[in-house]
Amino acid sequence: MAQQKMTKAEKSWIVYDVGNSALVLLATSVIPIYFSSLAPEGGVVVAWSYAETVASLIIALLMPILGSIADMQGMKKKFIVGCVGTGVVATVALGFVTAALAFLVVYVISSVALNSSMVFYDALLVDTTTDERMDEISSQGYAWGYIGSCVPFIACLGVVLGADALGITMQTAMQIAFCITGAWWAIFTIPLLRNVQQLHYKPREPHAVSRAVRGLAGTLREIWGNRAIRYYMIAYFFYIDGVHTIIKLSTSYGTDLGIDSTQLVLALLVTQFVAFPSAIIYGRLSSRYGTRRMLLIAIAAYFGITLFAAFFLRSAVEFWFLAILVGMFQGGIQALSRSEFGKLCPKERANEYFGFFDIFGKYAAILGTFLVGTFTALTGNSSIGVLSIAVLFVVGFCVMLRVPERTGA
User: Fold this and answer.
1) Does residue 322 contact residue 313 with C-beta atoms inside 8 Å?
2) pTM for this model (two decimals)
3) Averaged over 76-103, what is the pLDDT?
4) Longest Cα separation, the chain
5) Which of 380, 397, 376, 381 is nearest to 50 (CA)?
6) Which residue, of 162, 194, 273, 385, has the greatest Cβ tally within 10 A?
7) What b-and-e string marks burial along 80-97, b requiring 16 or more CB atoms within 10 Å of the CB?
């Protein structure tokens, strides 16, 4: 069957991933390395792990309440504007902060803004396309996000690595890099705001915040009472923990092993190029073999990746191999997780449900980064910290087996 041509709304929704992914890529590669130059010797993995934990906790606490408000007519895009505006300012500010603790505080603000915008963006998927096309469009978003983010990233990398040739200091180079990243994010937000409309919504009502707080318990009961959503979210809680932790801490882990920072950054860049076709292929395979089955394959693959990182990753060559493996499954597991939940949740309450979906994802990220940081601090061996991730994939796989298979999805 020929592929259906994408609508303007679908294309505009996809390109937002191109914009925000520039900061995601910078945050998983250059920023941790730059932070290590600001921080006292030792403790980089622990400090970075706890910063990510704080950011994840803030997002998890805010999103159900803000998500419920955002479900009201005309509110989704207003929240996106607020998050992107705050995030862009914080991203640019990162280049002007030199104290380690202050840098972490500003980074937490930018991370909260970025990831909060992603919750509202994910919820707009139900307004952008149909259930039948959600896997395809979600996968296209991640795919183009991977490849599109490489453009500003390569520009940033050229400025940072060529600072001496350009006659500028490293701090000035980083300031330019953060400005490029912030501008890229802002520019690619514009099509989303112009061309995607909130079609599913709740009517506006007075005292929205207090109503949202009071309604949390009822929504939780609804989620728990739906067998498919209940098991799906529990499985997601565990397996996405490992995925997020690997993404967030891979560079810090490589630095701790003594791998050259340039090798780390270039290897992660390769991940983006591998992930581009892989995410698209994964989305199309899901229509043939089912979303649940493809998610199970990705979870099993990540279990193997974790074991490889803990037991065999010791050199730059092995880090490059790991980056390629991650690229093959990273986009697929994230894209299909998002689209499958979009098909399961009520459309007019998508933001509220995605807020809880994000709680499971962000609390999982809290658990993963906390485990890695704690086990590394206790044992002095970051490999043991990484090994703690494997059990989460096992639990996620077993619970996913209990999620009913969706016919034709």
Assistant:
1) yes
2) 0.76
3) 91
4) 62
5) 376
6) 385
7) beebbebbbebbbbbbeb
